[in-house]
Write a structure and sequence with these properties.
- Helix content is about 15%, strand content about 60%.
- It folds into 3 domains: about 80 residues; about 100 residues, no CATH class; about 220 residues, Porin, CATH 2.40.160.
- With about 400 residues, the protein is mostly beta strands.
- A hairpin with a 2-residue loop joins strand 14 and strand 15.
Length: about 400
């Protein structure tokens, strides 16, 4: 746009910004300068306009070439993301993306077969140029890529300027450092109910768990709810929720923060909230078994139902957990855990919690679950309530 153009005073306020698309206006402007015999201004502004047009054209050309280069390179990038290779013992090989390895199972994503699960004893070797965290049964942590090994059932871990030979049977976990969040989450949900006509007892239970793992941390969320209704008694409720965030240390050690909430009307407990710190050690961790112990200290806040009395005390924790798994069809998963909470502020009080849970796969990702639980309190908040609450639960579950 031209502003304050006065040919008599030869005073020009020129175009503040020059855009190549206004080529027609520029040409009229230049012709006007020539008609007024202003050759000096004409030549100067013609050079400026030509330079601007040249620069814009060069920029557009660069954008076009970069876009074309990106379009041509995109298939190669997508292919590079899935160039991991698994070599099987029968001589076959599968190309795709290595997602994770845990409990003796390799999760591998392919274009042809979607996501497949491969058992460790079927793998001859593997290859991936990506960056992984690898944990062995001895508790050692390695960070690097995976290269083929000549010896069957093994891989080479490529770290910095070295290569370390490792049998696959000695590896308990492989985690991709750059995996998306959702691919690191595993979990399950159980649902069950029962009714006994003779005693007119209706019981409903719902439970679920989810775990999230990275190279250095693993988190677990567990929830469980049991509601029992009986015509001759008040409805009883047992609800539990627990969140643990742990950091993996060297040599089988791990440390973490835990928060837990409980409700148990059979033990006259309106709520119990625990928060604390713990230190754990993996005594056995391989592709079939895991045995670990935990010790810690917790702050315990409780409220009773009858008197609505609130108390706060400090408790210790000594716990042992064992997990046995068989992931060859049919899959079986058995977990047993025992926790002892001695009180530091209430003399002679201790609490004991035990849980046994077994899962039997029916079809892929669908299983039958059988659970046994027992909660004991040596000195409950009131004198009348029972000190012990236990039960057996059957349910149908789905894992993801």
């Amino acid at each position: 746009m031209l502003t304050r153009f006065d040919t008599n005073k030869q005073n020009f306020s020129l175009i503040p910004r020059i855009y190549p698309e206004r080529h027609y206006i520029y040409q009229r402007f230049l012709r006007h300068l020539r008609e007024k015999h202003l050759e000096g201004l004409y030549l100067a502004h013609k050079r400026i306009i030509d330079l601007k047009i040249k620069l814009v054209n060069q920029t557009l050309l660069k954008i076009f070439l970069l876009t074309l280069f990106g379009v041509l390179l995109l298939p190669a990038i997508l292919f590079a993301q899935k160039n991991d290779t698994v070599y099987l013992s029968n001589g076959d090989r599968i190309t795709g993306e290595l997602k994770k390895y845990e409990y003796g199972l390799l999760t591998f994503k392919t274009d042809a077969m979607n996501t497949v699960i491969i058992e460790y004893d079927l793998i001859q070797t593997m290859y991936s140029s990506k960056y992984f965290m690898v944990r062995t049964s001895s508790g050692m942590l390695y960070f690097g890529s995976i290269a083929k090994a000549d010896f069957p059932g093994s891989i080479n871990l490529v770290i910095t300027n070295d290569s370390i030979f490792k049998p696959i049977v000695d590896i308990v976990q492989i985690t991709s450092i750059k995996n998306k969040i959702w691919s690191r989450i595993d979990g399950a949900i159980d649902l069950g109910s029962s009714y006994t006509k003779a005693s007119d007892v209706l019981q409903f239970n719902l439970s679920g768990n989810a775990s999230y793992r990275t190279a250095r941390y693993f988190s677990d969320l567990n929830m469980n709810s049991i509601i029992t209704s009986q015509s001759t008694k008040n409805t009883s409720r047992k609800n539990d929720a627990e969140l643990g965030i742990n950091r993996i240390l060297q040599r089988r050690w791990f440390a973490g923060l835990q928060a837990k909430g409980q409700q148990n009307t059979e033990l006259n407990l309106e709520y119990r909230i625990q928060t604390g710190l713990g230190l754990g050690y993996d005594m056995v961790h391989n592709n079939r078994n895991r045995l670990f112990s935990t010790a810690g200290i917790f702050v315990n806040n409780e409220k009773t139902i009858d008197t609505e009395k609130r108390t706060t005390n400090i408790e210790g924790l000594v716990a042992v957990s064992y997990k046995w798994f068989k992931y060859q069809s049919p899959k079986i998963d058995v977990v047993s855990s025992a926790s002892l909470y001695p009180s530091f502020t209430v003399a002679g009080r201790y609490r004991f919690e035990y849980e046994l849970k077994a899962k039997f796969e029916i079809i892929t990702d669908l299983y039958l679950s059988l659970s046994l639980y027992d909660n004991y309190d040596s000195k409950p908040s009131e004198t009348d309530p029972a000190k012990n609450d236990w039960g057996v639960i059957t349910s149908i579950g789905y894992s993801f």
